[in-house]
Amino acid sequence: MSEVYITRTSSYMPNEPISNDEMESFLGKIGEQASKSRRIVLRNNGIENRHYALDKQGNPTHTNAEITSLAIRNIVNSDEELKDIDLLSCGTSVPDQMMPSHGVMVHGWLPETNNIEVITPAGNCCSGMHALKYAYMSVKMGMAKKAVTTGSERLSRVLHADNFELEVSKMRELEKNASLSFDKDFLRWMLSDGAAAFMLQPNKNETGISLRVDWVEAFSFANEAETCMYMACEKEEDGTVKSFMDFTQQEIIDKSVYSIKQDVKILGPNIVSLGFKKMIKTLNEKGIKPEDLSYFLPHMSSYFFESKIDEALTEYGFPIPKEKWFTNLKSKGNVGAGSIYLMVDELFNSGKLKKGDTILLAVPESARFSYVFALLTVC
């Protein structure tokens, strides 16, 4: 089997960066009242800028598929080169529609390409890494020569206030506190839009650097843990979820079933302990020590988890010095499936990397606690 190299990276961020103070002017105020949790959440997550595929009137400026296609256009030297792509593997948490798949809609934005294989892994933050693994295996087995893999999100429209107005109005009519529940409002200040892409090939670049993909390992803890982050369903008292298909249309509106929610009670106790213990076990099995790593790229939804991850690594006997950590969460925000791609893209093009450097990627997913880890070597 051939080696597999990331030979190019690219990204596309819609519109201008949006500061913390500008967020509510884009996402709107629910019930014409400022969010009570916004400042608390922003203080903890440490994000200072993000991008939205929205204008200030709440109108969409791009689709998820469109921003993904623009990231892909940024990875080729010309539109003519799009004809050389023989595999498109696209990961996202929330596609623009349930059918057709996200990947084929991205393909539809690239009419210069040929009739090629297209795949869309389901999932959340890990979907981008699953897309990477599929492309990696395809190139390694000789089934693709120039594969493009992507991670993207366009969540801002789902987070807009007008999606919650009816729910809040109903609570007001029932003389309850007319504010959005924390499990929904919390995520409105956490998530961002954007896309990034990698090109994978069996040969490294003749000039400059490439990133050899040494391995990609994925794990799910759904057999042990209940659902934490969810959309288009409601979580029941017993921990199971009820599908949107089992609600009436009125209930879907009243409960804003299509909103994204997170059970914060089980997030903290599980997201770090489950995955990073597994990561260290995997690294130990592969004979990798902390001193073997040049860079550590952890996907974090919030800087709140930075110290938690650091403490866990030390407790589990695998401390990674903070000077080896790299993240752009502060400037790009939490772009879900696209975040790890955006980190790699920034580092790849930073001029910091030198041949022989090793890069450990760690992507946790809170939906039902899944994790993907990968090791890259600069060549």
Characterize the structure shown.
This protein has helices spanning 23-27, 38-45, 64-73, 102-108, 127-140, 156-159, 165-173, 182-188, 249-254, 264-285, 304-315, 329-332, 339-348, and strands at 5-12, 18-19, 49-50, 87-92, 117-119, 147-153, 194-201, 211-220, 229-231, 233-235, 241-243, 260-262, 295-298, 358-365, 370-378. By secondary structure, it is an alpha+beta fold. The mean pLDDT is 94. It starts with a strand and ends with a strand. The chain has 13 helices and 15 strands. The strands form four sheets. Strands 5-4-6-7-1-8-15-14-13 form a nine-stranded mixed beta sheet, with helices on both faces. The protein has two domains: 5-206, 3-Layer(aba) Sandwich (Peroxisomal Thiolase, Chain A, domain 1); 213-378, 3-Layer(aba) Sandwich (Peroxisomal Thiolase, Chain A, domain 1), CATH 3.40.47.
Secondary-structure map:
Elements: E1 5-12, E2 18-19, H1 23-27, H2 38-45, E3 49-50, H3 64-73, E4 87-92, H4 102-108, E5 117-119, H5 127-140, E6 147-153, H6 156-159, H7 165-173, H8 182-188, E7 194-201, E8 211-220, E9 229-231, E10 233-235, E11 241-243, H9 249-254, E12 260-262, H10 264-285, E13 295-298, H11 304-315, H12 329-332, H13 339-348, E14 358-365, E15 370-378
Parallel strand pairs: 4-5, 4-6, 13-14
Antiparallel strand pairs: 1-7, 1-8, 2-3, 6-7, 8-15, 9-12, 10-11, 14-15
